[in-house]
Write a structure and sequence with these properties.
Blueprint (H helix, E strand, L loop, with lengths): L1 H37 L2 H11 L3 H37 L2 H7 L4 H49 L12 E7 L6 E9 L7 E13 L4 E15 L4 E14 L1 H6 L13 H10 L4 H34 L4 H29 L4 H24 L5 H22 L6 H13 L2 H8 L3 H13 L17 H12 L1
Antiparallel strand pairs: 1-2, 2-3, 3-4, 4-5
Helix pairs in contact: 1-3, 1-5, 3-5, 3-8, 3-9, 5-8, 7-8, 8-9, 8-10, 9-10, 11-13, 13-14
Length: about 475
């Protein structure tokens, strides 16, 4: 009967934790996606003004852009969601209540693992399947708009400079469209030998598959002047094809082949095998291939790491979770970017370069998990929390003129003294091991410390030591 009640309680607790983390995970996705999209506002505004983007095209642009953003946003949002959820529960005393009820750290982790696996699967879907397709569709969208602008933008007896390195003049554009009469082109792409092309007629031919537009000129001549030897060259032609750099004009990129970020996993694998004898192309292709699998796996790593981080230092609540998540994300993506560069150059094998950040944080998660499970001190986190408290106190004082001795600050300090480990007391109060043991013995035998002045009653703490402790606590 007791076992059945315990199972029933665990189901309720599991659902509660699952729901709490899932909600914060969703909020994290929204926050990070919105922040990332805000960075694209100026680029999008430029496209609306200069590239002819309408409302429908803008919505499509954002729709194609979001999958590539979510590949990185999902792991970050998961870490933030777990830390905020656990931080809030710890600050409200819920985690302590769960531990007192016999719920272990492993049991707390189970519903969080479920959310982590969900995030892992969703991230895989975006990274391996939807992301590359969206990137290619985005490229085609920009091309189609640029092509339409090129066709519509060519007007009679007006010099058109929309194409990089080319100046286009058309004497007549028939109403039926498709044909240009009396075409003059100034081509300055080869700066050493600029040329002028004159043709009776021309046609704009688009190739959506290769994402290129060709201006086919007929019955004309090419005039080229060499400034060095002052020579003049004239070439008559029946047909002359001139490629227009729409892709570069629209997106700032050259080349009509599929980029690696637009390729599927299979295409990346074949590309890496194709260039196996060419290190300059082989290593970047293999690096991209491994990164497709390494990025989603970060969800599982962050899920394991966030549990001990969220539970270890409960007093700072949501603020602690937000700061810690940013620090972890910053370190992870510094390692990831460094590994990507080294992998592309072949200094380190791409597999090692791309999987090292996951391995590093996974081992760190195991270490923190064991420490938290044994309720041992983690000096690095203790120091970090201490500095965060000092920064928080200074900011609070600067903004509101609040003094560290305010009621909320004192309550937080007393909470620290009653819950800190021996090592934590030594670090926080700046006292010896014996004095820390004396404080622990006093708080256990007296049901906790109610106010700071009560520390004077602890054996071995005189007036001088008390003043030193107070100075350390109140900064």
């Amino acid at each position: 009967m007791a076992l059945e009640k315990l199972k029933s309680k665990l189901k309720i607790i599991n659902f509660y934790l699952f729901y709490e983390v899932l909600v914060n995970f969703g909020v994290g996705i929204f926050v990070f996606s919105f922040s990332t999209l805000m960075a694209q506002v100026f680029k999008l505004t430029e496209m609306v003004i200069n590239k002819g983007f309408g409302l429908g095209d803008t919505v499509k642009f954002l729709g194609f852009l979001i999958p590539s953003l979510l590949m990185f946003v999902i792991p970050m949002a998961l870490l933030l969601g777990i830390l905020i959820a656990l931080g809030r529960m710890c600050a409200d005393g819920e985690i302590i209540a769960l531990k007192a009820s016999g719920v272990s750290l492993s049991q707390i982790y189970r519903p969080i693992l479920v959310v982590s696996v969900m995030a892992f699967l969703i991230s895989n879907f975006f990274t391996l399947y939807l992301g590359p397709k969206a990137n290619l569709s985005l490229k085609r969208l920009v091309f189609d708009i640029a092509r339409t602008k090129a066709e519509v933008g060519i007007k009679e007896r007006v010099f058109n400079s929309d194409f990089e390195g080319l100046m286009l003049y058309v004497n007549r554009v028939p109403p039926s469209g498709g044909k240009l009469e009396g075409v003059i082109v100034s081509d300055t792409r080869q700066t050493k030998e600029p040329s002028t092309i004159v043709a009776k007629e021309g046609y704009l031919i688009s190739n959506p598959e290769k994402l290129e537009v060709t201006l086919q000129l007929k019955n004309g001549s090419l005039h080229r002047l060499n400034p060095k030897d002052k020579s003049y060259q004239k070439i008559d032609f029946a047909t002359y094809n001139l490629k227009l750099n729409l892709q570069e004009e629209a997106t700032g990129k050259t080349g009509l082949e599929k980029k690696r970020k637009e390729m599927s996993v299979t295409e990346l694998w074949h590309l890496s095998q194709k260039y196996k004898g060419n290190p300059r192309k082989y290593y970047p292709a293999l690096t991209d291939l491994h990164s497709r699998f390494a990025i989603p796996f970060a969800c599982l790593v962050f899920g394991a790491l966030a549990v001990p981080l969220g539970i270890f230092l409960p007093r700072t609540g949501r603020a602690y979770g937000f700061v810690i998540s940013l620090l972890v994300i910053l370190i992870y993506y510094i390692l990831f970017s460094l590994g990507e560069n080294l992998g592309n150059l072949g200094v380190i094998h791409p597999m090692v370069a791309m999987w090292f950040p996951n391995l590093f944080f996974f081992l760190l998660a195991i270490y923190f998990f064991q420490k938290t499970k044994a309720e041992s001190s983690i000096v690095v986190l203790e120091k970090l929390a201490w500095y965060l408290e000092i920064i928080k106190s200074k900011i609070h004082y600067f903004l509101e003129g609040a003094k560290p001795e305010d009621e909320d600050s004192l309550a937080s300090i007393i909470w620290d003294i009653n819950n800190a480990t021996k090592e934590g007391l030594m670090l926080r109060l700046g006292i010896s091991e014996k004095k820390a043991e004396a404080i622990i013995y006093y708080r256990e035998s007296h049901g906790g410390i109610k106010e700071i002045n009560e520390l004077k009653k602890v054996r071995g703490i005189n007036e001088k030591t008390f003043n030193q402790i107070k100075e350390n606590l109140l900064g």
